Amino acid sequence: MLSRLQELRKEEETLLRLKAALHDQLNRLKVEELALQSMINSRGGDEMLSSQSASEQSQDQTLVHVDNEASINQTALELSTRSHALEEEEEEEEEEESDS
């Protein structure tokens, strides 16, 4: 029963990390979208849109900072996922050995 609870906690942690990774990816996509909109607006030459573009660029700078933090978090997630997978493999090997 206790091991099942620990297993569920690990699964919950993994799902929370996945949620954070997806949220980070969404933020990166928003940054890309704003950059593309800015490029489109700059090519269009509309002066009214240039003020909107300036506000989008300030949002871009804020999101780029978030994006840098997100990439760090993504790296940490990948590392922790790898270590978790290795732990699971070791546990499976131990179970197989104890069954033999």
What does this structure look like?
- The radius of gyration is 22 Å and the shape is rod-shaped.
- The model has no long low-confidence stretch (mean pLDDT 77).
- It has helices at 2-44, 47-99.
- With 100 residues, the chain is mainly alpha-helical.
- It is built from two helices and no strands.
Spell out the key features of this protein.
single chain, 100 residues, mainly alpha, 2 helices, rod-shaped
Number of strands: 0
Gyration radius (Cα, Å) is 22 Å
Helicity level: over 70%
Task: Specify the biggest β-sheet.
Answer: none
> DSSP helix count?
2
Which regions are unreliable across 5 or more consecutive residues at pLDDT < 50?
none
The rounded distance between the terminal residues' Cα atoms is: 23 Å
* String of helices and strands: HH
Shape type: rod-shaped
- Measured by DSSP, the beta-strand proportion falls in under 5%
Structural class: mainly alpha
Mean pLDDT: 77
